[in-house]
Amino acid sequence: MELYKFSKEVGKEIGAFGSNFVMSRISQGEGNFHIGCMYFDQNDFVGRHDAVTPQLFVVVEGEGWVSGANGEKLPIRAGEAALWHKGESHEAGSETNMIAIVIESENLNASIMGRL
Length: 116
Known about the structure:
- This protein is mainly beta.
- It has a domain at 37-106: Jelly Rolls.
- The protein is 0% helix and 52% strand.
- The protein has strands spanning 12-14, 21-29, 33-40, 45-50, 55-67, 73-77, 81-84, 89-93, 98-104.
- Strands 1, 2, 3, 4, 5, 6, 7, 8 and 9 form a nine-stranded antiparallel β-sheet that branches.
- This is Cupin.
C-alpha cells in the first residue's frame, strides 16, 4: 500500500483563463485522463473556457455555482455534480467555499447518476 496527500496545502494555485483557485492533482493517466481536487475559497472561480474532454465536477463540500454553454450560473452543493461535454464553454466558482473532485476523460459516462 502507498499513501498520498491531495490536500489544499500540496495543491497549486491556478490562474489560467483568469481563474483563482487551488488544484491538487490526484491521478493522471494515458491521453486526456485526469482526476484532481479543486479548492475554492470565498469568491474563487474557474474562468470560462472550453472543455478539452468531457469533465465531471463533483462537489464534495460546500456550495457554489456552475455555468455551461448558455452562461447561466446555476447553484451547486455537496452531493451534486455537473457534467460538461467536450468543447462546451463552462465556468464554476463559489461565494463562500467549495471543494470539488474533477474527473476528465474521453470515456467519461455519468449516466449512472440521478439527474437534478
